[in-house]
Amino acid sequence: MDQITFILDVMVPAFESGLLMTLALVAVTAPIGLLIGIGVACGRVYGGKGLSWLMQLYAIFFRGCPLLLLLFILYFGLPSIGIVFTPFVASVLGFIFCNSAYNSEYIRGSIISIKEGQLIAAKALGMTRNQAIINIVLPQALRRSIPGISNEFIYLIKYSSLAYMITVIELTGASKLIATKYFAYNETFFAVALVYLALVTITTFGASALEKKFAIPG
Amino acid sequence: MDRKVGFIFLALFILFGVCLCGCTEKPAETPDAVTAPEATEAPVVNENPTYIVGIDGEYPPYSFINKNGEPEGFDVESVKWIADDMGFNVKIQAIAWDGIIPALQAGKIDMVYSGMTITDERKEVVNFSKAYWKVNQSVATHDDTGLTMEDFNAGKGKVGAQRGTTGGFWVEENLVNKSIITPDMLITYDNFPLVATDLQNKRIDFAIYDRPPMLDAIEGKPLHIIGEIDTGEEYGIAIRKTDTTLLETMNEGLDHLMASSKWDELKQKYEME
Q: Where is the ABC transmembrane type-1 domain (chain A) (predicted)?
């Protein structure tokens, strides 16, 4: 089989379905991971002692647990206590835990960077504490965490490849299958690296556009 | 201020350069370093060469890493015997199975002696020694399902296989390509213990693998073998195409081994027949 037919007949279709799966994993994980991240960060900064401690525990646990191990527990381990997830659900769950734990730290950092005085001023204007957090602090803090969150997003694109270990055939899994079947390791892995690079480059440009769009004037 | 930044960049650049040099100075293959790093190289009087043997670390009884972290098994003992017999040293190295042929091609290892089936596709990229073992594929299922070999052949269920194994290739050729099952009903895993775990979890209905390691993998689990597929596969030692002398050495070594009493001893020890 020559190079061109190999690329057109084998690589392209496999990468296409693999890419779709990777995008699906990222698309489901990223928004939920962000929302939970915001919640965890707010809980840590504004929550009472108990909640704050609980959120800290969440961040420590999921940042400390190796993702591959987490996926293995979710996929291979939980069935022994009767919880059986599909490969896709198990991967997305693992990614959400990991993604939100890291996001919460980026967001917490930018929440702390907003001066306490703003909260006090907002309350003086008659806002409740929650209103002040949602309308005054978070809009600024989230803008400041765009670089951190996009960093985590880029990382998510790449660690989504771990899903192949629990039988989700995403981009890396698809390329491994081709590589082992046709013994075309160099070509396949080089090509798949280019696809990841393209994804990450698009994300990078998207993130800087987002940053410009939401920049606070002055 | 600018000078400071410039200095930091320069420092980083130099650091990076040093790292690169460090990488290139170390060749991929340094078997000599293992035996005697401090010995001067002058008095090399035809010293025995050291070959690195790549194995699947989870392929009992042929090759596996035992509880003490040491390689063991039928193939591991065989290659050690041949090494003694033919006068060379071996270093056993466990490598991920789906990357073992590229490792061989890249010179990270010198042979694969780990129950590798001789196939035409593999023969295109590596040489094989003469066959030293015949083996069939076996199919297993969960004790609760009551599925039979007829169900397997009729495509009534999901099949799990280790990625890059002949069992998986058989299913692809005979069930997927003939549209008996859809492509997503063949699920591939990184190693066979994971396949066995998922079969136990009932996510898949069948598992396919070479018979001897299958027996080992399902032992003590609620799984049983429902049948065999007579594929007439044969195991051989894979060696780089360019290493023709090593191929001759191994073929001769295999002849000696299979004619010796050690061969029967090994078969008995690992309950091979």
A: 19-207
Query: In this predicted model, what pLDDT tens digit does every residue of A86-96 receive, in sequence order?
Result: 999 999 999 99
Q: Which residue of B has its CA nearest to A75?
A: B198
Kindly report the nearest CA distance between residue A14 and chain B, in angstroms.
12
Residues of B in contact with A180 (CB under 8 A): 98, 163-164
* Mean predicted confidence (pLDDT) in B30-47: 50
* pLDDT tens string A97-138: 999 999 999 999 999 999 999 999 999 999 999 999 999 999
Average pLDDT over residues A76-87: 94
| Bond into B61 cis (ω within 30) | yes
ipTM of the complex: 0.82
Q: Beta B89-94 vs B50-55: how paired, if at all?
A: parallel
Shortest Cα distance, chain B CAs vs residue A152, angstroms? 25
Domains of chain A: 3-213 (1.10.3720.10)
Distance from CA of A186 to the nearest CA of B (A): 9
Residue ranges and CATH numbers for the domains of chain B are 48-134+234-269 (3.40.190.10), 136-233 (3.40.190.10)
- Residue among A164, A177, A180, A186 with most chain B CBs within 10 A, to mutate: A180
CB contact under 8 A, B203 and A84: yes
B134 beta partners:
B234
Q: In B, which residues are within 8 Å of A185 by CB distance?
A: 99, 102
* Chain B nearest-CA residue for A14: B183
pLDDT in tens, B234-255: 999 999 999 999 999 999 999 9
**Predicted pLDDT at B271:** 85
